[in-house]
Write a structure and sequence with these properties.
Keywords: 4Fe-4S, ATP-binding, DNA damage, DNA repair, DNA-binding, Exonuclease, Helicase, Hydrolase, Iron, Iron-sulfur, Metal-binding, Nuclease, Nucleotide-binding. By secondary structure, the chain is of the alpha/beta class. The longest helix has 28 residues, at about 450-480. About 35% of the residues are buried.
Length: about 1150
């Protein structure tokens, strides 16, 4: 009846000693049981080691147990556990229920108690209380001893929750955290392990529950042997060094010694393997002196440097995680090729497995490396769970787009993917949600134009929608309102049966099995059972409780959130991938530690949780021991680091990425700098300095997929006349002769000569694409400007008729149309009612605009502006913006003599004005049409002047430089159209007065000083001043702003004191207006001729730092990339005003001479 410690540093043979000791006991032929206790995750590997070392005879007397497995064995042999153990999901549901019922008793936690994550936090605290033998009465007894108010409130309310949880648990289940407590009671009542010998290995700490089991075993068993990873016990009475890497183990040792002293348990002479094995020559690192040096000196201060060659330790600096894992895959392949390793001898570990699992799986499959991912799968990400949760969300979120298509895209609804795509386009275009899904007539005729094609589409889409909604409406009708939990769980099950979800899961399992995806087979084989178990536990835990469906959904979701699916290796010879905390207990010859970055390994300080470090210290002082505080966990992390650095026997590679998936930079861990110091001859490799490529010229020829990628690079180098290793010719021949890769090799050559440039298409084909139904080429100015921006983008949009997916949203073009309509209605109202523009003040404008918008929205009940509160708010904002704009517009008109002649004037439709005709070569004719927002006129000195106004909702300014390059011709074309059609429109000849942009806006005026109302109004006028070109005539200018003094608040013009125009004025003569019209005309002819000749080159314009590609919807089609040969921007240089005018005059003169 004793305890014996077995001391030994990492790699010294503690586990081997335990197995050898068991073998010696087996030879004694007595009947006593031999028990080896290890952590749960190490039992399988430990059993294999015993079988290899001792043989099958070991199975007759030896048991490999964890503390939990020991509990199960005792309960099975002695009885004692009649209730089923509640799963983590059921546990969380129960806590959820308790918190809902006790909400009125809580004050401190009331606000956060309904937060989703709070249930998990409480679950962790309850689990901690149980593992550390903290009873409800213990918490109640210490309440009065707590002086700190926050901690007092925490403990008081946690005890309320803890007590209620235990009461609920006692009704039907047993908590898994109570198993060791029950085991302790059974060991007291039975002699099951009397005279047995026990070995406890691979533990660094024990919970109070586990320490109690050790105490009871020591009282009954012949002897309990406990391995401690540390040097021999220090018998000095000095203070223990908290920074010692073995500090955690020494704390564990002290706790056990205290138990021995308090219970009169004998202390057998310990065994110091550090001395025995050194003398006998046994050492894990006997073949790798570098690893032995790391074990001895990594945590030693000061340290000794290793001066030998570093052949068994590698250090790799990766560009990113992909580069890092690919380097690991290449290294593993090299180890296997050496013949010294098998896959099962190799492990890959990291501290952040979630960041590495997907990329590692993909790369290892490409490199044909068999692997086992030692991580439980989260049920929450399985399609069946997503199906259930989204079915609830559709109800709670009123058939939102996101919830409906999350449901449909699980693949478990039985609706074909192509139908889902059609439905998705329709739902996005028409904003289908809410009542539109549930009305009797699914699709209203008002959504469509009345033609046969859309009528057929209506019928088809309505059939798909009905198939989607039918089972969901049945399910929702069953769960709406309050129901017993058992009723809701039954409704969920019936819904899954109704849509045949389980049948489809089984079909998937068969397909996964056929194509060899064994990990998927394991996962999906368990998911149905897990869902049923969770529903059953929900019924058992709170089946008779009435709950609102939303409250139940939160509880169910917490259950799903905590459910994990365990997986086991499907083969023995696999690379193990996992977290550093789970690596112990394996025979690892080669280890790869990835992700060794600052804050990750070792892990940075974690959040303290409900109970802070200070709380834990206070509780410890009054006799309540709990888990380590964050400070102690930092030192536990150091021991974990020591463990992982010393687990491999032959080879170690440490790597770290310099950037994460998003490209954010990462810093190397302190581990990297420490390794470099103790191994000064260790060379840090990277993609730029890869030692393996120098030592092994064939290191890039690995498995088909990655080698094929390398072949592509080699062929590119060969095309660029760079040196390529001769063996790539043989590699190329292998792929060329392979049926699987034959076509892919051909595609490489196509790719090497790839060009995204298609400069011309057939002229006749183009004319068919661009002509209207009458065979005429009718263009708008904006279309020609689009062609000038990028010929290819124009061709895709207007030739191929490519369109973006229509979305039910209010886009900038929608806003532009809405604003133009309201401004047109406003102008017509003013004209119809005979209101003088000078009489329109701010309030009058507000009233008229508000009334016009209200009428418009009442007439268009299906308008998006009526669809939601958000859009109704936007319509109110539009009222404010348009009101401010028309107030300024009224003041601008009122300040001058020009009168509004026409608004929204169309030309080119042969009703209000002829099209502008362009005569091209080969007698081809192009007709321009358009709509002019406003035409103002002025009769002065026997002349009629016209002013063209174009409304803009964006920040549009007139730019003569852009006009020169054909990017801003609209105003001049409008002017030309009116002048040419003036005898039909105004019944007289006209003279250009101005071409101007008016910005529709309600600007925010910023100032560093306080401003008066008049000053603010002046700034508003300045912000919304008309922009463009004005006739260089003082009378005409004053007719636009009679109050002009110096500079104008209406137009871009200003006078000097001598009456001449300032140089900052945007004024031109009548002759210059004519020149601009003629230049724009020639420019449009040039653009049309290029367009109709088939010029569709990918050549987007770029001016300053702005490229038109930034706003193009078709960049994914052209794949413009300046790194591709001949992909170049058309640079729009910034020319001076004088240079532009000189060029325009020259071009116009030259074209006249040519004619």
């Amino acid at each position: 009846m004793s305890i014996r410690f077995i001391y030994g540093r990492a790699g010294i043979g503690k586990s081997t000693w335990c197995i050898n000791s068991i073998a010696e006991n087996i030879k004694k032929d007595d009947e006593n049981k031999l028990i080896l206790i290890v952590p749960e995750q190490y039992t399988f590997n430990t059993e294999n080691r015993i079988l290899k070392s001792i043989g099958e005879s070991a199975l007759l007397r030896t048991q490999v147990l964890s503390f939990k497995k020991m509990a199960h064995e005792v309960f099975e042999e002695c009885g004692g556990r009649v209730k089923e153990i509640i799963k983590e999901s059921g546990r969380n549901m129960l806590i959820h229920k308790v918190l809902n019922e006790k909400i009125e008793s809580l004050e401190y936690f009331r606000k956060i108690s309904r937060e989703q994550g709070f249930y998990e936090i409480v679950s962790d605290v309850i689990s901690e209380f149980k593992k550390y033998n903290v009873e409800v009465d213990s918490l109640r007894n210490i309440e009065e001893s707590i002086q700190e108010s926050d901690l007092y409130n925490k403990i008081r309310e946690l005890s309320i929750i803890y007590e209620a949880f235990n009461e609920e648990m006692n009704e039907g289940y047993i908590d898994g955290d109570d198993e060791l407590t029950l085991l302790g009671k059974k060991l007291l009542e039975n002699d099951i392990y009397t005279n047995s010998e026990v070995w406890i290995d691979e533990f660094s700490t024990f919970t109070p529950q586990q320490l109690e089991i050790i105490r009871l075993l020591a009282r009954r068993c012949k002897r309990v042997n406990i391995t401690l990873c540390m040097d021999n016990r220090d018998n000095s009475n000095g203070n223990q060094d908290i920074t010692d890497v073995f500090n955690t183990i020494k704390n564990t040792e002290n706790k056990i010694l205290k138990i021995m002293k308090e219970n009169n348990i004998s202390y057998d002479k310990p065994i110091n393997l550090n001395m025995i094995n050194v003398n006998e020559g046994y050492n894990r690192f006997k073949n790798s002196p570098e690893l032995e040096h790391i074990e001895k000196y990594f945590f030693t201060y000061p340290f000794n440097s290793f001066n030998g060659k570093c052949e068994n330790v590698k250090l790799y600096k990766a560009n990113n995680i992909y580069d890092e894992i690919e380097r690991v895959a290449k290294s593993i392949t090299a180890l296997i090729r050496s013949g010294k390793y098998r896959y099962k001898d190799i492990s890959v570990v990291c501290r952040n497995i979630d960041d590495y699992e997907k990329i590692t799986s993909v790369i290892f499959k490409d490199y044909e490396i068999p692997y086992f991912l030692d991580k439980k799968l989260e049920l929450l990400n399985n399609p069946l769970i997503i199906l259930i949760t989204s079915a609830f969300e559709i109800l709670f979120k009123d058939w939102s787009y996101e919830s409906v298509f999350k449901y449909l895209k699980t693949g478990l609804t039985g609706i074909e993917n192509s139908y889902i795509d059609i439905l998705e386009n329709f739902v996005l275009e028409y904003g289908v949600k809410g009542y539109k899904w549930t009305v009797k007539e699914i699709i209203s005729e008002s959504w469509f134009n009345n033609n046969e094609e859309l009528s057929e589409e209506k019928i088809f889409i309505s059939e798909i929608m009905d198939e989607v909604r039918r089972p969901l409406l049945v399910f929702h009708n069953k769960i709406k309102g309050k129901h017993k939990v058992s009723h809701i769980c039954k409704a969920i099950y019936e819904f899954l049966i109704d849509i045949h979800a389980f049948e489809r899961i089984n079909e998937w399992i068969e397909k996964f099995d056929e194509i060899g995806l064994e990990d998927k087979v394991k996962e999906y084989s368990q998911v149905e059972e897990s869902v049923i178990d969770i529903l059953d536990q929900a019924v058992d835990v709170m089946g008779d409780k009435d709950l609102d469906s939303y409250d139940f959904f939160k509880i169910l979701n917490s259950g799903f959130n905590n459910e994990e699916i365990g997986v086991i290796p499907v083969a023995l010879d696999q690379v193990n991938i996992g977290d550093v905390a789970r690596i112990k207990g394996r025979d690892v010859k080669a280890l790869y530690i990835v992700g060794v970055n600052d804050g990750i390994l070792p892990a940075s300080k974690k959040e303290e949780g409900i109970l802070s470090d200070n709380d834990r210290n206070i509780l410890s002082d009054i006799g309540i021991e709990l888990a380590s505080n964050t400070r102690n966990k930092v030192f536990e992390e150091q021991f974990l680091l020591y463990t992982v650095l010393t687990i491999s026997s032959d080879f170690l590679m440490i790597s770290y990425p310099m950037a994460d998936f998003e490209g954010k930079s990462l810093r190397p861990s302190i581990v990297i700098s420490r390794i470099k110091k103790i191994l000064p001859k260790l060379v840090e490799e990277s993609d730029l300095y890869d030692l393996s490529s120098y030592k092994d010229k064939l290191n890039k020829v690995i498995s088909p997929i990655p080698t094929f990628n390398e072949l592509i690079l080699a062929m590119r180098k060969n095309c660029d006349e760079e040196n390529v290793e001769e063996y790539w010719r043989e590699v190329y021949k292998w792929y060329k002769d392979s049926p699987e890769y034959e076509n892919k090799v051909k595609n490489i050559f196509k790719g090497l000569d790839y060009s995204n440039l298609k400069n011309h298409v057939n002229k006749n084909n183009l004319r068919e694409l661009y002509a209207n139904e009458d065979g005429k080429l009718m263009f708008s100015v904006s279309r020609l400007e689009k062609y000038a921006e990028c010929p290819f983008s124009y061709f895709v949009q207007y030739g191929l008729k490519a369109k973006n997916r229509k979305i039910y949203e209010f886009t900038p073009p929608d806003l532009g149309s809405f604003v133009h309509d309201i401004l047109d209605l406003f102008t017509n109202r003013v004209k119809k009612e005979g209101i003088l523009w000078s009489e329109l003040n701010n309030e009058r404008c507000k009233d008229i605009v508000s009334n016009l918008i209200d009428i418009r929205l009442s007439e268009q009940t299906n308008s998006i502006l009526n669809s939601s509160k958000r859009f109704k708010y936007l319509s109110q904002r539009f009222k404010r913006v348009i009101s401010k704009s028309v107030t300024v517009m009224a003041e601008q008109i009122g300040k001058g003599e020009f009168e509004v002649f026409k608004t929204e004037f169309d030309f080119g439709n042969y009703k209000t004005g002829e099209a502008v005709m362009l005569n091209l070569q080969d007698d081809e004719k192009v007709y321009l049409q358009g709509r002019i927002d406003r035409i103002d006129t002025l009769d002065l000195d026997g002349q009629t002047y016209i002013r063209i106004i174009d409304y803009k909702t964006g920040a549009k300014k007139f730019d003569l430089n852009e006009l020169y390059y054909g990017l801003q011709m609209q105003l001049l074309v409008y002017l030309d159209a009116i002048i040419k059609n003036s005898k039909y429109i105004l019944e007289k000849q006209v003279v250009p007065g101005a071409v101007l942009y008016f910005k529709v806006d309600d600007p925010i005026i910023k100032s560093k000083k306080e401003m008066t109302t008049e000053e603010v109004e002046t700034e508003v006028l300045e912000e919304l001043k008309l922009k463009g070109l004005v006739l260089k005539d003082a009378k005409v200018v004053k007719a636009m702003d009679r109050d002009i003094e110096g500079y104008s608040l209406v137009i871009p013009a200003a006078f000097k004191k001598d009456g001449d125009f300032k140089s900052t004025s945007d004024v031109v003569t009548e002759e210059e207006f004519t020149l601009l019209r003629e230049y724009v005309n020639r420019k449009m002819i040039s653009l049309c001729e290029d367009m109709l000749c088939g010029d569709i080159k990918i050549e987007p314009t770029k001016q300053a730092n702005r490229s038109y590609c930034e706003y193009c919807d078709f960049s994914s089609i052209c794949q413009f990339d300046t790194s591709i040969k001949d992909n170049k921007y058309k640079i729009v240089g910034k020319k001076s005003r004088t240079e532009i005018w000189d060029n325009i005059r020259s071009d116009v003169k030259g074209s006249k001479e040519d004619n």
